Amino acid sequence: MQMNFSAIKPRLTFWQLWNMSFGFFGIQFGFALQNSNSSRIFSTLGASPDDLPWFWLAAPMTGLLVQPIIGYLSDNSWHPKWGRRRPFFFVGAALATMAMFLMPNSRAVWMAVFALWIMDASINVSMEPFRAFVGDKLDPSQQTTGFAMQTFFIGCGSVIASLLPMMFDKLGFSNAAIGGNIPETVRYSFYVGGFAFISAVTWTVLTSTEIAPADMDEFRARKAAHRGLGHVVTEILAGFGKMPLTMRQLAAVQFFSWSALFVMWVNTTNAVAANVYGTTDAHSDAFQNAGNWVGVMFAVYNAVSAIAAFILPVIARKTNRKVLHMICLIIGGASLASIMFITSKEMLLLPMVGVGIAWASILTVPYAILAGSLPADKMGYYMGVFNFFVVIPQVVAGLILGPITAKFLGGHAVNALALGGVCMIIGGLCTLLVKDDVVVEA
């Protein structure tokens, strides 16, 4: 049975797009603090650099399991007041906020890994329906702009979140790992991040509306037919064999793009500490200062992505989305690889500009291309399945990155960043194989 949704999707105003995307500002506090501080936290608690990729696996593995299930459940949910996606926004945000208070208070590596798992699962519960939200509410001609608005808020949230440890350091909070504990600068950053997460998502929940199914009787009949765990599992698994062609073609692009990002998130702190600050001792002041500077670096690439989010739709109209994404990924890959040649902390900000351009495109263009190829009644489910192509490369990288770095890259984290840059360039070239026939708005 094909469920039909309201065919009328009026063009939204700037402020309507703003409100429906503002929740991503908070969500990205969680991701940015996780990405820029997890390796630092694990290392401070005594983890070996070679083991870091293994500990990071907790995050993508939860996404692999959570997103298709949440997508399926949100597709088949409806509340007269709260709609289809917004209840999932709020529940995920509440759980993620609690985890953000837990992680920086960990006293052992296993506690930090567990907190990361809870936090990432909760962020995925909140984030996945946001992608489908754009497909639900916007006509295909406005979807690139909708995803670009999300990217803008992702960039803004990431900038502030990434700079928080440095800000607290300047305010006089301790940046030292006294007794092997997490520095105050990191702990208070996570507290602020948790508050921002729940506040921003609540804003979207309260200020946005959703489009009801055009035929409520048909929707209820479909929902009743899909009750039962066995049916749910069967339908979720069956959907893998029915993925649209465009989705399958984007898989290779996503694989190489997200492998590169995983390499960057895992290795940048150790690479900068060794290559610029001259230390591998996670308890030294130099290592903690390197961790703060990585926050600044990540703030730069996210600031660039926030600006680029508004430029990308303009460029896409003058070229096409495939060419645009290819160029952005090549720029980002070359920039990431160039870090291995830099020994000045200030100069490290330059390649982050290129990474930011790639990041903006990664968060915007593939989702805009995908949304135009998906059936309306399975938007949430397929957006969740699409996350497999985000998660699987991270899982693969997590399993093999440590041994590759130790055996073939001299054990140097900075060499792993160069490998990540090559992967991103390959992802850009794969974009040329993707089918994209949707016309971008004029």
Your description of this structure?
The chain is mainly alpha-helical and 442 residues long. It has one domain (14-208, 215-433): Growth Hormone, Chain: A, CATH 1.20.1250.20. It contains 17 helices and no strands. α4 (58-75) packs antiparallel against α16 (388-408). The longest helix has 34 residues, at 285-318.
Layout of SSEs?
Layout: H1 14-21, H2 23-44, H3 52-56, H4 58-75, H5 86-102, H6 109-137, H7 140-170, H8 184-207, H9 216-225, H10 229-238, H11 245-275, H12 285-318, H13 321-337, H14 349-371, H15 379-386, H16 388-408, H17 413-430
Helix pairs in contact: 2-6, 2-7, 2-8, 2-11, 2-12, 4-6, 4-15, 4-16, 5-6, 5-8, 6-15, 7-8, 7-12, 7-14, 11-12, 11-14, 11-16, 11-17, 12-13, 12-14, 13-14, 13-17
Number of domains: 1
| Average pLDDT level | 85
The total count of strands amounts to 0
Query: In CATH, what is the class?
Result: Mainly Alpha
Helix percent band: over 70%
CATH superfamily: MFS general substrate transporter like domains
N-to-C span: 35 Å
Give me the secondary-structure category.
mainly alpha
Number of helices: 17
Oligomer: single chain
How large, in whole angstroms, is the Cα Rg? 21 Å
Overall, the morphology is globular
Characteristics of this structure?
mainly alpha, 442 residues, Growth Hormone, Chain: A, disordered N terminus, 17 helices
Briefly say what this structure is.
This protein is mainly α and 442 residues long. The chain contains 17 helices and no strands.
